[in-house]
Amino acid sequence: MEESQAWPKLQRKQVLDGSKIAEAIDCCLNAWKALTFDLDDDAVVIHKNLIERQTKHRVRPADSP
Predict the structure, then answer these.
(1) I need a labelling partner for 1 at 20 to 30 A (CA). Which of 31, 42, 49, 58 fits?
(2) 3-state secondary structure string, 1-65?
(3) CA 50, 53, 58, 62 torsion-angle sign
């Protein structure tokens, strides 16, 4: 997991302190442990399509059949 955190750390070094992007990257890095908590748990489904199929029937525009 450490290697995936290297990219935002590198990007943070390239932006100006106080900029909005710096704030966003800092927020990401500060929440890194929480953001990556479930990645080591094989029971957690990360695949987007499976989640979309499971929730598609719950969220439907009003004009849909």
Answers:
(1) 49
(2) CHHHHHHHHHHHHCCCCCCHHHHHHHHHHHCHHHHCHHHHCCCCCCCHHHHHHHHCCCCCCCCCC
(3) positive
Q: Which residues contact 29 (CB under 8 A, 6 or more apart)?
A: 5, 8, 9, 12
Going from the first residue of the chain to its last (65 residues), give the mean pLDDT of each consecutive group of 10, the final group possibly shorter: 85 96 95 83 71 66 59
What is the model's pLDDT at position 45? Answer: 67
pLDDT at position 35: 83
Tokens of 5: 């955190």
CB 28 within 8 A of CB 7: no
**Residues 39 and 52: beta-carbon distance below 8 Å:** no
